[in-house]
Give the backbone structure.
Amino acid sequence: GSGSGSGSGSGSGSASSASSSARNMVIHLIDSPGHVDFSAEVTSSLLLCDSAILVVDAVEGLCARTHSLVREAYLHQLVPVLVINKVDRLCMEMGLDPSEAYMRIRELIESINAVCAAMLNSAALDEEEANNDQDARDAIWNFDPIKGNVVFASALHGWGFTIPTLARSLFKSKTVSLKPPLMRQYLFGDFKYNSDNGKVLMWKQSGSSGEPMFAEYALAPLWEIYEGVSQAATSAGMKSELFGDGAAMGNGINPNKKKPENTKIEATTPGMERVIAAL
């Protein structure tokens, strides 16, 4: 849906004889639309599962149905994972730059956490006394990208990542010299990275040079790929399917010119150098 949806899953694992640390996992995913017309299906899936995946559109944000889905998953004592889907729309439809997109995603997570906090406060008033188990259960309803319970994704284009996986990737590729456990503390927040001296500095929304780390290392490469592919398509005489106007932002190429026969995009097509560099 364009607003929010829900999914849930249960899993089982067994130790592998080859390695004490390797485990084979079987995950059952039960998908149920978030629309109010499918309330019965949502309830049935929540009864079956151990965890709930809450899918929220990066552009549409929270809708009225999201609130009731959150409460229902909490009452069933499920472990939640937040998926912010359609992140690509922030680039292709809204035309936000990576820093603006980061701020919008940050505000969306804050608004979801505010809904969860209000739900927990309401639940606490209904209970006589809190205990340690209750506190632990409440803690999992705080979505924090650093903890890894937030996924940034585009289901349409088949990609998704978390802050821990991004930190490992950046360290493995030697893009950022910080060790992953330390790097993840700064990857989603108002911090910027100085590649010259390897230091992390505070980033301010106004009057600050550079981009926050999430914008620079997570979103900017994706933006470059989208715009590069679109530019390459229009350079080859094809209409870009990525951007609403049929052309990459600011490439100045007419998307309506006649498409030559047997045309194809190659590594040397203008625009593909941006894609290769981003990859």
